[in-house]
Write a structure and sequence with these properties.
mainly alpha, 75% helix
């Protein structure tokens, strides 16, 4: 709890620092604060502290996901030092809003009550609606913010309606009590309860960009500022899946038949739409958006397995996905600047000739997302497939493997461009901080691809 309180205070401090003329200390102060939050989170490991009449539980599950999200946010803020260098206004607000969103993410990993889950989702979402429209002079940025807000509002309405139906039937918001209430029906749920649970799943599925509730993802990822897109693709997705799994494990397992079928459909659609949609993309951010939808399908496959190591598999997958995605967004910004603002895949042409080491790391990160052996992404997908097959999900596992093969194809679209020479290329300027983030993430991708860090949480 101390980490959550400190994180909230940190966001307020960053806003006050923004009122001064000390812009140069904004990012260092935010990163230093996140490091302190990281230390406070480690201190809570193993305690299983409960607060507000057990509405919030900081157990090892929540702390592990919180630590993962803090590390990714630090990497994004290091990226932000160079990204916001030319931005004259509202830099403090950008950092503060991401910190406030992170506090919502903390609640999403530690709830045991549906009301706390709702608060976590809203505290996460409201700053993101603002951040998505951060480029006020850009039509696409304003459009992405509007779409995200409108569709997010609909998802929130479904979620609240679902909570109301569940409370009306069970007279409780507390997940363990809801689990006991559902268990007495032996899978034959009353229509009111079934509809309520489906509405809750719709609300959470929107946050993790799972099909068929994915329509906002390509436009929002494309239109939002790239730093915000990186935050949404990594931290927000991690928080969403932590909340999704906690909701299932604390309140719904073993899954009632209709809910299990609904998750099957969402998993299959996410894999299909994400991978096939990415095949025809020429815009790099839209390609990563559809890729994100596909990865949601793989993570949901781990959730479907309902095994004691499902949580650690999801944690490993989301972290591995994040440390490959953040540096790719950094590299995208670097080549975009050199190509006078274009966002197509062609801007990667000539990268190997200019910056061979960046080209190698770009290939490594794309290989990890594709699940090529000797990368962390391969081990993440391998664990998901082994887990799902061991639990008897043979058909959906085979389908997921086929979709993974398709994924290799469109990731190598980008690799092909990286190693294609061009006569029209401006110099690519890489700051020391950006280079450090790329190298650290590259090393982590290789190390995590050799050693499996899998433990019950």
């Amino acid at each position: 709890m101390s980490a959550l309180i400190f994180l909230t205070v940190l966001g307020i401090i960053i806003l006050y620092v923004g009122l001064t003329n000390r812009r140069k200390i904004l990012a260092p102060a935010a990163i230093a604060g996140l490091l302190i939050t990281l230390y406070l989170s480690f201190k809570d490991w193993g305690l299983g502290s409960k607060y507000f009449h057990d509405m919030v539980i900081f157990d090892n599950f929540s702390i592990a996901f919180n630590i993962s999200m803090i590390i990714i946010t630090i990497l994004i803020f290091l990226f932000g030092i160079d990204y916001y260098k030319k931005m004259e206004q509202h830099v403090a607000e950008q950092y503060a809003l991401m910190i406030f969103a992170l506090t919502g993410a903390f609640l999403m990993t530690s709830f045991s009550n549906l009301i706390m889950l709702f608060l976590g989702i809203e505290i996460l979402s409201i700053p993101l609606y603002i951040l998505a429209g951060g480029k006020k002079a850009s039509y696409r940025s304003n459009e992405s913010s509007f779409k995200y807000f409108m569709l997010g509002s609909f998802a929130t309405a479904f979620f609240l309606f679902g909570i109301a139906l569940i409370y009306g039937a069970s007279a409780t918001f507390y997940l363990p009590e809801i689990k006991l209430y559902i268990a007495q029906f032996n899978g034959n749920l009353p229509p009111m309860v079934l509809v309520g649970l489906l509405f809750i799943l719709i609300g959470v599925a929107f946050k993790v960009a799972a099909a068929p509730f994915h329509f906002w993802v390509p436009d929002v990822y494309e239109g939002a500022p790239t730093l915000v897109t990186a935050f949404m693709a990594t931290v927000v997705k991690t928080a969403g899946f932590a909340a999704f799994y906690r909701l299932l494990s604390m309140g719904l397992l073993p899954l009632p038949g209709p809910l299990e079928k609904a998750l099957w459909v969402m998993t299959g659609l996410s894999l299909l739409i994400g991978n096939l949609g990415a095949l025809k993309q020429k815009n790099f951010k839209r390609l990563l958006a559809y890729s994100s939808i596909a990865h949601s399908g793989f993570i949901m496959l781990a959730m479907l397995s309902q095994h004691e190591v499902s949580a650690s598999t999801i944690l490993y997958y989301t972290f591995v996905y994040s440390i490959a995605s953040v540096p790719l967004f950094i590299i995208f910004i670097l080549v975009k600047r050199a190509s006078t603002g274009l966002e197509t895949l062609h801007i990667f042409q000539g990268l190997y000739k200019q910056k061979p080491w960046i080209a190698v790391f770009t290939t490594l990160f794309l290989m990890s997302l594709a699940g090529i052996p000797l990368t962390a992404g391969f081990l993440a997908k391998y664990q998901v497939f082994v887990l799902s097959i061991s639990q008897g999900y043979i058909a959906i596992s085979i389908f997921a493997i086929l979709m993974a093969v398709i994924g290799i194809y469109y990731y190598f679209f980008v690799v092909r461009e990286v190693f294609t020479e061009t006569t029209e290329s401006n110099p690519i300027i890489v700051s020391k901080l950006n280079a450090a983030v790329i190298i650290v993430c590259g090393i982590a991708t290789v190390v995590l691809g050799i050693f499996v860090f899998n433990f019950p949480i």
